Structures are given as C-alpha cells and as structure tokens.
Amino acid sequence: MAPSVMASSFVHPGALHTQTDFDRMKTQVAQHAQPWTDGWDVLIKNSHASLNWTPRPQAMIYRGYDGTHRENYAVLFNDAAAAYALALRWKVSGDDAYADKAVAILDAWSKTLTGIDGTSDKFLASGIYGYQLANAAEIMRSYKRWPAQDLARFKTMMLNVFYPMNHEFLVHHNGAKIDHYWANWDLANMSSMLAIGILADRHDIYDEAVEYFKHGAGNGSIEHVVWKIYPDGLGQTQESGRDQGHNTLNVALLGAFCQMAWNQHDDLFGYDENRALKGVEYIAKYNLGQDVPYTSYSNSDVTQPTISSNGRGNTRPVWELFYNHYVVLKGLDAPYLRTAAEKVRPEGGGGNYGPNSGGFDQLGYGTLTYTLK
C-alpha cells in the first residue's frame, strides 16, 4: 500500500479526540453551556495549562530505583500533562500562544529524550507517558506553525523510544510468567501502541494493539481484564482483589484504548457484547459503596479470596468517557457508571488529584472533552 494511501486511511486528529469533538467543545464553551463551561474552568485554572509552564526534558527517564539512578519520571508526567492541557486550551480558545507552548514542550522532549530505564516500572512509564505524549502530538499535528520536520522528529522519538518498549513488554512481559503483571501494565502499553500507530500512520502498530485487546495472552486483553461475567450483567475485573486505586486505573486505560479505536471506526466498546461496560459498571458499583459479587481470583503469584476494600471510593477522572459513550450515545442503561460520572463531574486533569503519579495516570478533563449533550 502506498504511504499516501496509508496516511489517508487514519482519521486525524483521531486519538482521544476528533475535530468534531473540538468543534463541539469550542461551540459549547463559547455559549457558556453546561457542563462544558465547568470543565473548561477546571482546565484553565490548572497550572499545567498556563503559558508560564516550563518543560524540563531529560535525556534518560528513570522509573523505579535501580540502585544507581535517581528516579526522575515526575518531570515527564508533568510535562505530558502540560502538553495535553495546553493543546486542549488552544483548540477551544483558538489562541495560538497555547499552541506555541504545547509544541515547545513536545519539541523539547523530542530533541532530548533517548531512553527510559529503571526497574520493571520502566514499562509503566513507556505505556502511560507514551499514550499521553502521542495524544498531545496528535492534537497539535494540524498546527500550521509546527514545522513538518519537528513533527517528524517527535514521531521518530515515539517510534524509537516508546513503541519498542510497548512491543517488548506485551510480547515478553519482562521475562515473567504471562499472568504475573496486572492488567494496567498491559493496558498502558497497549494504549501507547495504539496512539503511536495513529500518530505515525502505522497500521501495523495499530493493528498489533487491537489484536492484543481481542486475543492477547496477558491480563490486558479484554477477556482477562473482565474475566468473570455474572448473570446480572456485571463483570469482575482482574485487579478487584488487589486494590481499588489500580482497579479504577483500569477504567482510565481501558477507556482511552476504546475511545482511540472508536475514533478510527473500530468499536471495541461494543466488542464481546459490551464486555468493557460490564467491567466498568462493576468497578463503579463497588467504589460507590455498594456490594458486588466476587469470585476468588488466582494466578501464578496470588490467590485473592475476597474483593479488596483498599482505596475504595478512589477518585479518578475516568467516568465521563464511558458514560457519554454507553449511556448518551448508545442509549444503554448503566446506573452505576452514571452515578460515578455525576459524582466526579466536572473532571479535572493532571495536577487536580494530587502531585503523585496516580494523579497523572489519566489525562482527564472528560467533562469538557467527552460530554455530548
């Protein structure tokens, strides 16, 4: 297939948001409509969306203390959050100053970053920050003052630093047994792979990620994330017996994956009879304080006879994406998802939920970006 044909077959912008989405945000905010305006207000008050933001690029990022190198991955997750927030602010406001700042952050990293290392946690960095950076760049690709060679350099960084780690992890799982790593590790690297495939117009990379979602051997494939379906329609999720912080992280990463695929006309939300919705409803119901069925979970490392209440009620800005897709767009009944979305609305982004990595694992701002009507 000729490169020009390959390029035209991807929707751009087409990772977490399409141009139709940006047009809706812009129109609704201009009309001071709710809840978009509340979502916009959260964005513009966040320091990451400020023109005063200064990037801190590093040649090497370390996540997990390897006994030698100081961990420095916080600079990357803060800069990724800033690039995304500024990109959104540009798209909605039309003010090119925010575009210039977003591009400056992306350029600083593409000129500097050569690798990611540390403990096995380096694969969390390759996944989470990979999908976030690729999304910021996908928004900015239409900016006329971002030179083609600079966008190309950014794509090269994503293909040379992030994608090989995403692929390596999903194929070899750091040399561990296939069920050793929790679902969020797979989902993060799958999301990065999908986003990079879209950004770089690489169907092979995109297809690799979709195939893993459907049939992957690790815990990130959909039948392993939502591994037990109950007669009431709820689906027990792989990290339910671990803790609810990571269980809700699965909502974030699964949502990002399905949304990006949806914007490329692949309906993974509906895959296997809305299997993702059954898992999200399960997580939402339990974290709203209600009882859910639970079956003892075992893998080669653990046996978890009861659901974990650790972190129960954890607040992450992850619900609007699923709520607007399943309830508003598709008209499905999802009462716990609806309540969870209402509870967190308006959703903030990185920096609104604490200074640590958990507050930055998801890009957020879902009330502004995903509300349909």
Q: Can you walk through the features of this model?
A:
By secondary structure, this protein is mostly helical. 55% of the residues lie in helices and 5% in strands. It contains 15 helices and 6 strands. Helix 13 crosses helix 14. The radius of gyration is 19 Å and the shape is globular. Residues 55-287 form the Alginate lyase domain. This is Alginate lyase family protein. GO terms for molecular function: lyase activity. InterPro entries: Alginate_lyase_dom, Chondroitin_lyas.
Specify Rg, calculated over alpha carbons. Answer: 19 Å
Query: Helical element count?
Result: 15
SSE topology string: HHHEHHEHHHHHEEHHEEHHH
Largest sheet: 2 strands, parallel
Mean pLDDT: 97
Uncertain runs with pLDDT below 50, 5 residues or more? 1-7
Structural class: mainly alpha
How would you sum up the global shape?
globular
Strand content: 5-15%
